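W.,

You were right to be curious about this one. When I first looked at the sequence I had no strong expectations either way, so I just let the prediction run and decided to look at it fresh. Below is the sequence, 156 residues in total, followed by the output.
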Amino acid sequence: MAEDLIIATGNKEEKYQQLLPQIKASIEGEQNLVANLANVAAALKQQFNFWWVGFYLIDGDELVLGPFQGPIACTRIRKGKGVCGTSWEKNKTIIVPDVEAFPGHIACSSQSKSEIVIPFLHKKNPAGVLDVDSEHYNSFDEIDAKYLEEIVALLQ
């Protein structure tokens, strides 16, 4: 298992391309989902210095806070509520350039300005969402969506 992350340089896409095999190596062979989520969150935070990066796990009709990196966060989010609950309900990636403009946004931190949320599977079943927040507007785009979707696909 790779325990040291090599911080990539270059543009955003090059950083993801260099990070992806490192994440794969860090979770390969580990069956514990929480351990893998923790390492993925840490790798993303370390590489990109996102404001907040973490996972919410499905528990009945709610998402419950899982492993994350960043300031304290909301603990529970109902299905269909906020960006995370909407991403889970619609089973699709949601990019939000300005969180205040998102109907029903849940403000866990007033410093979060933009967000991307990606639903993920574990053992072929819906398991939760990856939530990434930035303290800047318009931080996320289709490049983030593409590579973050590839990263969560490794969790299956």
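Here's what jumped out at me. The domain at 12-153 is CATH 3.30.450.40 (Beta-Lactamase). And, maybe more interesting for your project: The chain has one domain: 12-153.

Coffee later to discuss?

I.
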